Amino acid sequence: MSTPEIVVATEELAEHKSLLARVWDLCRRQPLGTFGALVVLLMIFLAVFANVLTPYNPEAASWENQLTAPNAQFLMGTDHFGRDILTRIIYGSRTALFVGFAASIVGATLGLVLGVASAYFGGTFDIIVQRVVDVVLAFPLIILALVVVAAFGTAIQYVIIAITIPFIPQCARVVRSNALAIREIPYVDAARAMGFSHARIILRHMVPNVMAPYLIMITAFMGQAILLEASLSFLGLGVQEPIPAWGLMLQGGAEEYAESAPWIPIFPGLAITVAVFGFNLFGDALRDVLDPKLRRE
Amino acid sequence: MKYFSARIAIAAIAGAALGLSAVGSASAAQKPQKGGILNFVVGSKIPSYDGHRETTFGVIHPLAPFYSLLIRINPDNPQSATDFVCDLCKGKLAKPTNGGTTYTFKIRKGVKFHDGTPLTAADIVATYQKIIFPPEGIPSARKTFFRMVESVSAPSKYTVVFKLQFPSGAFIGALGNPYNWTYSKKDLDENGYTWHQKNINGTGPFVFVQHQPGSFVEGKRYAGYHHKGQPYLDGYKAISASKMAVRLQAIRGGRAAIEFRGFPPKARDDLVKALGDKITVQESDWNCALMTTPNHKVKPFDDPRVRRALTLSLDRWGGSKYLSNIAIVKTVGGVVFPGHPLAATKEELQKIAGYWPDIEKSRAEAKRLLKEAGVAGMSFEFHNRGVDQPYKVVGTWMIDQWRRIGLKVTQRVQPSPAFYATLRKKKDFQVSMDFNCQAVINPIADITKFLGSAGNNYGSFEDKVLEDIYNKLLRSGDVNTQLKLIRQYEKRALDEQASGALTLWWYKINPHRSFVKGWKIAPSHYLNQQLDNVWLDKKLM
Amino acid sequence: MYAYIVKRLLLMIPTLLGAAVLVFYLLRAVPGDPCEIRLAGTGLYADPAEIELCQKNLGLDRPLYVQFFEFVGGYFTGDLGDSMWTGRPITYEIGLRFQLSLQVAIMATIVSVLLAIPLGTISAIRQDTWIDYVVRAFSIAGIAIPSFWLGIMIILGLLIITQQWFGTPWMPPIDYVSPFEDPLANLSQLIWPAIATGYRYSAVATRMTRSAMLEVLREDYIRTARAKGLLEKLIINRHALKNAMLPVVTIISIEFAFLIGGLVVTEQVFNLNGLGKLFVDSVGAQDFNLTQQLAMLVVLIFIVTNFVVDLFYAWLDPRIRYA
Fold first, then answer.
1. I want to staple C112 with a disulfide (CB 3.0 to 4.6 A). Which of A15, A166, B105, C202 is the partner?
2. Residue of A nearest to B5 (CA)
């Protein structure tokens, strides 16, 4: 049980190694995280180069190719509108990443602001923010998202809002508890005593110190956001046709024809699973690397 | 991967062969057997038990077997739009007297409500009073169907007389509406007009046993039913299943024997492939059609050229071949239910914009019109209802059709309440899906949907010419004049003004377990649902 | 301790009130109402007067604040009102579904515990070996697989496999049978959703078990036990597992609270008549009364569970009470 010593030792050694070797070292210590990172990179690659990677238009129906089984021309077959499933999965990674990044970055950032402010100012402001956070956290994610989508509508921007809202308090709570600890650190006290402005203290001292939980939350949210978007789309309340989106691909015809055309539900379902799996593994590894408390273990 | 494609090919062949042969054998007369419980699945919810106020088939399918109607579509010939027969009345339907303004019905004797109260003419009168002249504060969904009725009365214990203000061909259709359940006067008098929202007491073939909200309704055989020897079933269970996939699986996995709304052809083929001759398929044209309504108050849809371009780009003849594989729509038609004597022939249809035989020519014209109107390649938002079959599937088809003339269309889908609020009140849409769906086929009443003045037309337009044609049509008694006027009406609404566009008419496909006998498909999922003549063939179970 | 309990109870009030405000006004932001869908829901012509009448009957024509006070007032008078869609009492509508949701939640929790504790323990003991990696990958995959997709695959699998093995396709019942009436039919319906969701919810618990075990295994008394030469198995069972259980129990109870009302999508796939399906249906029908009472119920379950967990902690560790 001498893990701590080993970690420290490799880190010291690492400083003398090349970047490549250090990356390799990290990969060896975090095989699951590495796999996650690869998945994330692959997804980004697919999203960026979608129009180069596939010859088909993801939205154009092709009636002569309705419900074609996977073959050399359509590697994952076609759906009931004759659209190439692989193409829709590749373009679908754009939708997933867009919804995921938008929701998790906006959600985590607003949560960061709220959490830091709440911790820094304390008092009544903190109490009010904490009660609001309590309220929102008391709802299951999907219930809150459902009501928000029902209220606003089903366009992609509302789906993002619906997913963002439950993320804000989650992040606010984590950031606040981290920030509270930092507020008590002597140098922050000193900065206050010296009469620095609130903005300066918050930006220069507190925010950088809660960046680790912030980044961890973002990756954790990514997986959740992709799943939530898929669930909403599956309920018919998310992204709408003809936009290629993974959850949408599992809805409607995909279920009804699941038996005779199993490729329609199988591949998008796998895409969601692999993507969320990747983001979660990556997030876990990131936490191990970034969270000093865990690293000490 | 080879495995999949081979199975598909077999499915297609088996589907075609078995589907046809099954329908053939179903028509052969057999002696009905008694007994058994029929399980069926329903894809909609029960708002309240009162058929007079509700409008969804979610009320008809589970609850209609508890009630009787005065007259109904012949359960052995539900395909006919005009074959009404007596249910609670006696003998043949009598011809109207007094120049077509007086209808007299003799009521059956010896009929009893499930609570034992004997039925008399007074109950029929009380029922139609509630439907036609509801007291202040009591909703009645189809009151407007009876605008021609002056009075309902019972001159004797077993006679009912309807007096009309003017003769109307729409009266019998309205009278035979499947929602006009006969209530007992005693219940209405003693318990008030809202009692039936939560309680059931009818004279129908089945007696209410229990309702587990959200899950199922159970009924058992009524021994005192007035059609002798019926019902054949011991009882039934209507199981609620909101997802079509679940309803399909239920039939496949033996949890239900039938579903009465309809499945797309692909689903039918899968069932037939999996279960072979254990599945029988019944198919019919369906008195429902999806249409698109451009908002005439929003630019550029105030321009008839743009509206024409929208309808011109829809490949209806092609869609009838391929879209019909995956959606519950199929038949190309004009404003009148296809197959009805007043409907347009194929030649007549092909002269209307959007129905031309050559789609390329049609699309070229659409592009030209858009260019002329200065909106080539524009983008807009299509407003649709959050129901998969057939709304979203047909919506996706239309968006793809519009893409082919260079239009970039996105879709805004709303759940039903918000969808209707948008159409009726907010009106903040550009082009919306809409639909016309009726129980009893009655073209001259049904086509009012296309009039700008109709309460359920959401296009916000006035078309004096169209209104004039319709007023002439309403007053014409002769079929040839009606035919001529309807063609003018069709041309004006769908082509010249393109104030609305029709997509394909729905197509009803009901694959069911072969042991379910006696039920015949109707051109509407509201009709022929009392189940009194349905029986189970135990040899096939 | 009593002061702590009272303080925690008082803190619940603003949360509940906030939730009530949020739900009430969010629902009213939706265009349309239950009368629109009832009367115009099938596209037939609907007389505006009829719609107004319906709105009047349901009290929707009154100012919002009046409706809000009626909603909140219901908790004091004990009258939660009727569903705007079916006209039946809310307590009846919810009670009917609660039984099913509770049972699925309990079964899913059992599945989740049965998976999480052994897997988490093994993973901790064999930290950083391939066993650890496989277990972690397996449990994270549980979070990653959309549970509705898993559900679809399970039903499809059952249909295909039973047809191939027994000749007739079999699927779980689609209508609810009480476990007291027919336990076998009940189990054959609910075991599948319980597996699908239990697997999913085991992921967090597995991770928690693993890290709690890792922490405990490093404690001095375990080292002492090891030094004494106790069998490894005994150490794990008698000492380590017991002490690692606290955080695991916490996470499982909080998940349990979410499971009761949060199985929105899974209930759709398995056609379960539970609270999640009721929620989707009532949102769809714009049944304001029912939706807001359901949301409040879910919130209440969550808050009470948290309260109980906190009390338990406070009872174990007096320092918390004064924090």
1. C202
2. A69
In a domain, B316, yes or no: yes
For chain C, the chains sharing at least 3 beta-carbon pairs closer than 8 angstroms are A, B
Estimate the share of chain A in helix, then strand, then coil, as percent rounded to the nearest 5: 75, 0, 25
CA B164 to chain C, closest CA, distance in angstroms equals 22
Calculate how close chain C gets to B240, using CA atoms only, in Å.
Answer: 8
Domain CATH code at residue B165: 3.90.76.10
Residue C142, domain CATH? 1.10.3720.10
Q: Are residues B364 and B496 in the same domain?
A: yes
The pLDDT profile of chain C, 323 residues, written as one tens digit per residue, is 788 888 888 888 888 999 999 889 888 877 777 887 777 665 555 677 778 888 888 888 888 888 898 888 888 888 888 888 888 899 998 988 999 999 999 999 999 999 999 999 999 888 888 999 999 899 989 989 998 899 989 998 999 899 889 888 899 998 888 888 899 999 999 999 999 999 988 988 898 888 888 888 777 777 777 777 666 776 766 666 767 777 788 888 888 888 887 788 889 889 999 999 999 888 888 888 999 999 999 889 988 988 888 888 777 766 655 54
How much is the pTM?
Answer: 0.85
Nearest to B456 among C45, C169, C175 (CB): C45
Q: Which residue has the tokens 């209806």?
A: B316
Nearest-by-CA chain A residue for B416: A150
ipTM: 0.83
Angle at C160 between CA B277 and CA B253, to 5 degrees: 55
Chain B, window 130-169: residues with a beta carbon less than 8 angstroms from a chain C beta carbon = 137, 139-144
Expressed as residue numbers, the domain containing B352 is: 285-506
The answer to whether residue B11 is domain-embedded is: no
Inter-chain touch C214–A152, beta carbons under 8 Å: no
Q: For chain B, first and last CA: distance in Å?
A: 35
Q: Does residue C84 lie within any of the structural domains? A: no
CATH of domain A30-290: 1.10.3720.10
Q: Do A277 and C144 touch (CB under 8 A)?
A: yes
Contacts C266 to B, Cβ<8 Å = none
Number of domains in chain B: 2
Contact: B415, A80; criterion CB under 8 Å: no
Considering the domain boundaries, does residue B20 fall inside one?
A: no
Which structural domain, as residue segments, surrounds residue C181? 94-274
Alpha-carbon distances, residue B486 vs B319, B328, B344, B453, B492 (angstroms) = 25, 27, 9, 17, 10
C140–A280 C-beta distance less than 8 A: yes
Which of A143, A148, A281 lies nearest to residue C262, judging by beta carbons?
A143
Q: What sign has the CA pseudo-torsion B326, B327, B333, B337? A: positive
Element (H, E) at B503: strand B501-513
Quick one: three-class SS letters along B190-217? HHCCCHHHCCCCCCCCEEEEEEECCCEE
